[in-house]
Amino acid sequence: MTTINSVLGPLDTASLGFTLMHEHIIEAEDGVFRDYPELLGANPMKRVVNELKKVKEGGVDTIVDASTLDLGRDVGFLAEASRQTGVNIIATTGWWLDIPRCFASVSVDQLAQLFTREVEQGISNTNIKAGILKSASDVGGVAPEAETVLRAVARAHLKTGVPIILHSYSPGQVGRQQLAILKDEGVDLKRVKVDHSIDTTDVEYLTWLLEQGCYLGLERYPGRYPSPLARTRTMKALIDAGYTDHLCPSQDRGILRIIAANPKITEEERLKLNPYGFLYIKKVVFSQLREMGVSEEIINSLCVDGPRNFFEGV
Q1: Could you give the CA distance from residue 156 to residue 231 in angstroms, rounded to a whole number?
Q2: CA gap 252, 130 in Å, rounded
């Protein structure tokens, strides 16, 4: 058993239970919730609490909120939502893709100190501590500014022991570049989770990642390309290969997001794609796995063993 940081204080890994390892309570940009809350709609806390209560009743115990500062993280809001619903929430430090120009003159060690402070002391002048570190690279691979963040995340990890999640572009096998940099920094790859892994059906690449010792985040359900069923078939192949205890299925879904006048996808379309919210894994994916012949023992262990093993550094 290991003690980790939740937004309400220390949490024993034995209490994690069914864990969604990559979701978003608020999915926006830095400062939007504070300064332009009307863009997120009316009664934000009530809406979040209502959804998280349904999630709790549906058997979800813990959610990792993967929103860094540039994705609209608000730890005070997360703490109150956790307090009202009983869902454990783990906050994230590090950085996503929106790297500001000011970071161009900031060193790796300066950033590492900032991320370390958010783990050891607290975020936004609170005593709410991050329980996970995050770095991101996408279609273009690890750009120079993203490498600065990634190395800073690695150094903050080595100082704090808090594990790392990677936003990665799996169709381009960007995880190979990210893991090489982390290894260069001295990170034990069993403390790393490569997210958005089933954006590809390339089982050979995904198996290579697992052979390095890291965990896989299997999110972006329901997804379109690959389809939800193709994603689950890829998961099944990894289960059959014996990697169940290193898999972390999730949805990568947001509750509060910008209510735009001209959205790329309407709320009606979003609801049609996923009528189950944070319970899509339980309602749809697990049913698909049963139809594919996966045992109840393995299904019951998904979202339990992988997350616990990841936080414990097994």
Answers
A1: 32
A2: 19
Q: Which amino acid is at 223?
A: G
Query: Quick one: residue 25, left, alpha or beta (phi over 0 = left, psi -120 to 50 = alpha)?
Result: alpha
- In the chain, % of residues over pLDDT 90: 92
- Which pair of tokens denotes residue 218? 């299997």
d(CA 190, CA 313): 6
pLDDT of residue 263: 82
**Cβ-based neighbours of 148, under 8 Å, separated by 6 or more:** 103, 106, 107, 108, 111
Whether the CB-CB separation of 192 and 166 falls below 8 Å is answered with: yes
pLDDT tens column, 61-102: 999 999 999 999 999 999 999 999 999 999 999 999 999 998
In 3D, which of 252, 260, 249 has the Cα closest to residue 303? 249
Q: CA 85, CA 17: separation in Å to the nearest integer? A: 15
User: Phi and psi at residue 178, in whole multiples of 5°?
Assistant: -65, -45
Q: Nearest to residue 122, comparing CAs of 3, 16, 4, 7? A: 7
